[in-house]
Amino acid sequence: MNKCIIGVGSNINPEENIRKMLHLLGEDYLVQKHSQWIKTAPIGITNQDDFINGAVLVRTKLSKKEFNLYLKQLEDRMGRDRSQPKFGPRVIDLDIVVWNGEIVDDDYHSRDFLKIPVDELF
């Protein structure tokens, strides 16, 4: 069983969309726990709503590649608009940050909104 920490972010109805994501994810995988949720200012494109960020610890039998594909499909199911700019508003953003104890997302080192919640679960 693989242990994965997912970085989570949303700034479009974030409370509702994070709750929905946790429900959908929990239907398919064992969600062990999640971090506290923190409100953060957007980066890059600053004239948009603040984000709610956090992290979720799950276990999966899938490979990292397969689980990442699942996360992207979950984002799509929730209505993620991939035509938006990289730092634009989003319904949900899900990224594998830690896989089996190894940090696999370089943003962990430079973004406190990712590092703080992940460290809660690491």
First CA to last CA: what distance? Answer: 16 Å
Write down how many β-strands occur, each being a DSSP E stretch of 2 or more residues.
6
**Radius of gyration, taken over Cα atoms and rounded to an integer in Å:** 13 Å
Written as H for each helix and E for each strand, in order along the chain, the element string is: EHEEEHEEH
Count of helix runs: 3
Mean residue pLDDT: 96
Tags for this model:
122 residues, 30% strand, globular
Can you put this structure into words, describing what you see?
β5 and β6 (102-103) form a beta hairpin. The two termini are 16 Å apart. The relative contact order is 0.28. The protein is built from three helices and six strands; from the N terminus they run βαβββαββα. It has helices at 14-28, 64-77, 112-121; strands at 2-10, 30-34, 38-40, 51-60, 93-99, 102-103. Strands 1, 2, 3, 4, 5 and 6 form a six-stranded antiparallel beta sheet that branches. The mean pLDDT is 96. The radius of gyration is 13 Å and the shape is globular. The longest helix has 15 residues, at 14-28. Helix content is 32%, strand content 30%. It has 122 residues and is of the alpha+beta class.
